[in-house]
Design goal:
Blueprint (H helix, E strand, L loop, with lengths): L4 E5 L6 H10 L3 E5 L6 H4 L4 E3 L7 H16 L4 E2 L2 H4 L5 H10 L7 E4 L2 H10 L4 E4 L9 E4 L2 H11 L4 E2 L3 H14 L4 H20 L3 E2 L3 E5 L6 E8 L2 E8 L13 E3 L7 H14 L3 E8 L6 E7 L4 H5 L3 E4 L3 E4 L4 H10 L1
Helix pairs in contact: 6-7, 8-9
């Protein structure tokens, strides 16, 4: 312990307000910072540095991880650390990382030339799932029912590209998150003003993904997925029902929280082993089940998640064995782990 000071990238949304409230209650002096302008020297007297990355902020995606890594190299305790966030919002990086640890992932194909992608589509088994490198809540995830649809998508990816953040989806998702956040009316207005600003930037300068094709095996026979969130040695689990007349569960908002006797122990064990091996501070994993074997199949992961969904769980499984009943805020556990 150096100075009893906790630095938080200060914004009015996400995990930051709770971190500030909790750190203050624990007797720490909170140092609100602008992560983009603060120097490493200014942080050296801090016990910890926390920054909740915003998936809809290009600046956060492009620069925040480098700034945090610099602080980590300087010997500071940071959240998220490099192991947790270097692959954030990058499904290509995540696919390679999960392949490296031999995780039971849905089979994934990655192409960097139109010819190779087209040759694959000639003999592929359909349907397939098309994904962009970036996106959450099933944004940019599409079902490919046949070769013609696949050819159309890969030609776009090797041509003018595909919008990585469609304006209407960005605005809709920001509004949905704001409504579920539990923020005060004043903070909610600030949040929506920020969302409007991001929406206008997307409209004026829409980012496009191009130059690759990412396809994944479609695992049939699932009317829901399993969201397993690992924070330290704690596992929170809930089911997400697929959307009506759709195949996607992520972003549906149709959640079923599980009691202790309903927990998918096999999926929890897989997620816990991955987090431990790769040094993740927190990570949310999306599983479905193989229709033939019933075994968990991992689709993707993200260290960013909706805090309210975790708090709504009936409890968590600790170290794979002990059930802790109650409702807990993930921000509290992240901060407590970092300061321990």
């Amino acid at each position: 312990m150096k100075s009893n000071v906790v630095a938080v990238h200060s914004v009015a949304w996400g995990f930051a307000p709770r971190w500030i409230e909790l750190a203050t209650g624990l007797g720490y002096t909170v140092k609100p910072i602008n992560g983009y302008s603060v120097t490493i020297q200014e942080l050296r007297n801090c016990d910890a540095v926390l920054w909740h990355l915003n998936q809809d902020s290009p600046a956060d995606l492009d620069y925040a991880r480098s700034i945090l890594y610099g602080a980590e190299v300087a010997g500071l305790r940071v959240f998220p650390n490099h192991a947790t966030c270097w692959h954030f919002d990058d499904k290509i990086a995540q696919a390679k990382l999960l392949e490296a640890v031999e995780a039971p992932v849905a089979r994934t194909w990655l192409f960097f030339s139109l010819r190779e992608a087209s040759d694959f589509l000639k003999h592929a088994r359909y349907p397939l799932v098309f994904k962009l490198r970036r996106g959450a809540g099933s944004m940019n995830v599409r079902l490919v029912p046949d070769r013609a649809h696949g050819e159309h998508l890969v030609r776009r990816m090797f041509g003018r590209g595909v919008l990585s953040r469609p304006p209407l989806e960005v605005m809709s998702r920001s509004w949905s998150r704001a409504r579920k956040s539990g923020l005060s009316p004043a903070l909610l207005r600030d949040r929506l003003r920020g969302a409007l600003g991001r929406w206008l930037r997307v409209v004026l300068r829409p980012p496009r993904e191009r130059g690759y094709a990412l396809l994944q095996e479609f695992v049939a026979g699932n009317d829901h997925d399993l969201r397993v969130t690992i924070i330290g040695q704690r596992a929170f689990v809930y089911r997400r029902q697929v959307r009506p007349h759709d195949f996607r569960a992520s972003g549906s908002g149709r959640l079923v929280h599980l009691q202790e006797n309903e927990l998918p122990r096999d999926a929890i064990e897989i997620a816990s082993q991955i987090s431990q091996r790769l040094g993740f501070q927190s990570m949310a994993y999306d599983f479905v089940r193989d229709p033939a074997s019933g075994h968990p199949v991992l689709l993707e992961m993200s260290y960013v998640f909706v805090a309210q969904y975790i708090h709504d769980c009936f409890g968590y499984l600790e170290a794979g064995t002990v059930w802790r009943a109650g409702h807990f805020w993930p921000q509290d556990m992240i901060l407590e782990d970092l300061l321990r």
